[in-house]
User: Fold this.
Amino acid sequence: MTSRRVVFVVGSGRSGTSTMAGTLRALGLHVPQPEVVADATNPKGFGEPRWVVDLHAELLARSNVQVSDARPRAWLDTGTTSGDHATRERVAAWLEGQFEVADELVIKDPRASWFLGLWRAAAERCDATPSYVTMLRPVTEVVGSKQKYYGQMGAGSDQGAVTRTAAWINMMLHTERATRGQHRAFVHYGDLLDDWTQPVFALGESFDLNGVKTAMAVDIAEVHRFIDPSLRRVTATWDDIGVPDRLRELADETWQALGALAADDSTTNQEWCDRLRTAYAGQYADAEAFAHSTVLAQRRTAAAEARREAAGQASSGRSAADRVPHAVRAMVPPAARQKLRRAMGRERPEGQGQGQA
Assistant:
């Protein structure tokens, strides 16, 4: 049996993925270098390989998909983009290089959920066993944290909350579907902060991670220093986030279904997620239908602006002489017009329009 292991930390951003990746790193799993540099939004570090982040950003741009995309069809777009042979070869080659450094890797990036099929194929090609840990944090806290650290979306705060809540549902339900049938676990962010040893050592046994199972006292002490309960800096509720009742109900039920999977990854709970995914797709289709007139109006506005810009460019491209009204040009004697043309380097060939200026 292969000793190569790669753990993908997946789920929505701001749900504790960085804390989990940092914990596994402290216990001996290798985070491919270099990493994304820590900043004010994540002062203890992201635990994200720079190469992976850049790859995902490139693939999302090619797919016309954003990190937190609420559209159900976005999954089809990213799947199509990442399915080409050249991309798969590229990722497998990079991953093979990382296994030359260590046998147990941890790869974390909130964008990774869009490309799990790509990574699974790369891991299998490298004769490695992929595992997936999905971090769970209440949607209100995820959305509240994004509003605080990433700013508002659109013209109003409610619009940002609505979009981010819908994107959370879309991300979490499709991540569940993409990891189904694989080595996986669901971990509550609150449990990680309260007593990390229980969920993390359970992962070590479930995923057969040698680094976790053989962790030394110095490694455990390092994790205790790394995990700080104050990392849970946003504790928003629905009272702080204004979203429509139907979306709120769907988000609440999605949270309940994911919590049930964390306790019992059964067919019954998986089918519950299937029903919710179908319900979300229907609700999103209704929203698109309601907003169709707005979309058409925006397209008309964009087309009108494009026409005005093109007209302005065409106007600026004409010479000063061309912009002089014909009635004024006609008042200039022909001989003088010819001299002006010669001086401007615009003299016309003999016999060609000599009567026009």
In short: DSSP finds 16 helices and four strands in the chain. The beta strands are 5-10, 104-108, 129-136, 183-188.
